[in-house]
Design goal:
heterodimer; A: about 270 residues; mainly alpha; Cytochrome Bc1 Complex, Chain D, domain 2; two-stranded antiparallel ribbon; 7 strands; B: about 150 residues; about 0% strand
Chain lengths: ~270, ~150
């Protein structure tokens, strides 16, 4: 199974590269993200203490957000006074594997638009609960996405790239290779070329999204993948994009491709 | 673009003595924005004084230079030091002041794919955060101070 996924990932990366997308970027002289090795989860780069914290549900602080998400799942909201549970019943079955398929093209949008799990939950809030959308990084959206993603823990990511998502994928790949900020570094410089090395005090991982939303000690809380992007943009002194922006969604899709073969670990723990 | 011409002129001067002049040219061209935001035409202000190693050490270890992100410098005794670049112990013995200066101003000259930032650069960057836009990471005097400090690492 793993071998198939990694072969697929590599083939798909060739497709991206073959379309000239990587080659057009001014900083694309770096090695392509492909390697013969399977991707390694960020957890494998974390310290033994952090890994132990993540591995034990009773001590993993992220599980508090998952529990909050479960409570919200059962709570009625909006003018329809409906709960998620009234329609989706038992999350352990209805939401199992769902997170492994996001981001994806939104079937409901009139023009092809990429939607991630945050967007999908908000879609149900509006369409099915007649409730206002939940803001990015709001405790409720973090809790619900952590809860829904947690139902896929241990499952491997799936990804279908079609004509409609390919443009996003190319954009994400280009952003990933683009030097930016006052420090003039691209994602690839740290997460491909220097994974395993230490940046001041932090071991650099391959930058995979498979543990999100994560509990980060530095945040004293759970945060989304887009919040992590913000940290990395700030790290190179670049102007961040808005959470939920097309640019971050494109990056999220490209990271999903790089991570094909990795199992979901939500909620992961990081320093 | 004007600035990068100055940069090229200053860097093509190989003599150690000329390096400092080059940096001064940069400052004259308005590159050293934080210290002199709108002063391309105020020569007395822009002339750098000889580098001061102890000030340079502060720049290297502090948030301005942030060199320890990527380099170990055992002499500092710092608790956290990165290893994306080589340790800088002995850098002052291996490299001349002019080479050290060039390293800081235009590291892509010796390695086009380098990850080390160009500390005097303001041109050709993408999406620089608002707080840093139009400013080099280090001013001309700070670069002289860092060169002086690196020179003491023997």
């Amino acid at each position: 199974m793993n071998a198939n996924f990694s072969t697929f990932a590599r083939a798909a990366l060739y497709v991206v590269a073959g379309l000239g997308c990587l080659g057009n970027s001014p900083s694309a002289t770096s090695a392509s993200p492909m390697s013969n090795a399977l991707p390694k989860s960020g957890s494998t780069y974390a310290s033994a203490e952090i890994r132990a914290l993540q591995a034990d549900d009773a001590s993993n602080p992220g599980m508090l957000w998952v529990a909050d998400g479960q409570a919200l799942w059962n709570e009625v909201a909006g003018s329809q006074a409906k709960s998620c549970a009234q329609c989706h019943v038992v999350a352990a079955t209805s939401m199992k594997g769902v997170a492994t398929r996001y981001p994806q093209i939104d079937k409901h949008a009139t023009v092809p638009t990429l939607i991630n799990l945050e967007g999908r939950v908000n879609f149900c809030r509006i369409r099915h609960q007649a409730a206002p959308t939940l803001a990015y990084e709001s405790p409720a959206l973090l809790a619900l996405t952590a809860y829904v993603t947690h139902q896929s823990r241990g499952l491997v990511r799936r990804l279908t790239i079609d004509d409609e998502s390919r443009a996003y994928l190319q954009r994400g790949a280009a952003l990933y290779q683009q030097r930016m900020g006052q420090m003039n570094l691209a994602c690839t410089h740290c997460h491909d070329q220097n994974a395993g090395k230490t940046l001041l005090a932090e071991k650099i991982s391959e930058g995979h999204p498979n543990g999100y939303p994560i509990y980060r000690l530095e945040w004293q809380g759970v945060g989304s993948l887009h919040r992590r992007f913000r940290s990395c943009f700030a790290g190179v002194r670049a102007e961040p994009f808005a959470p939920g922006s097309d640019e971050y969604l494109a990056l999220e899709l490209y990271l999903a491709l790089r991570a094909v073969g990795l199992a979901v670990e939500t909620p992961a723990v990081r320093r | 673009m004007k600035n990068s011409n100055h940069l090229r002129i200053s860097l093509s001067e190989n003599a150690e003595r000329m390096g400092a002049v080059g940096v001064t040219l940069l400052a004259l061209a308005g590159c050293a924005a934080p210290a002199r935001p709108n002063a391309p035409a105020s020569p007395p202000d822009a002339i750098t004084t000889p580098g001061d190693p102890s000030r340079g050490r502060d720049v290297v270890m502090g948030r301005d230079g942030n060199c320890l992100l990527c380099h170990a410098i055992p002499e500092t005794g710092a608790r956290f030091m990165g290893d994306l670049g080589p340790p800088l112990a002995g850098a002052g013995a291996r490299l001349s002041a002019a080479q050290l200066r060039m390293r800081l101003i235009d590291p892509q000259r010796s390695n086009p794919d380098t990850i080390m930032p160009a500390y005097a650069r303001i041109d050709g960057l993408t999406r620089v955060g608002k707080a840093w836009r139009g400013k080099p990471i280090l001013g001309a005097q700070q670069i002289e101070d860092v060169v002086a400090y690196l020179g003491t690492l023997r």
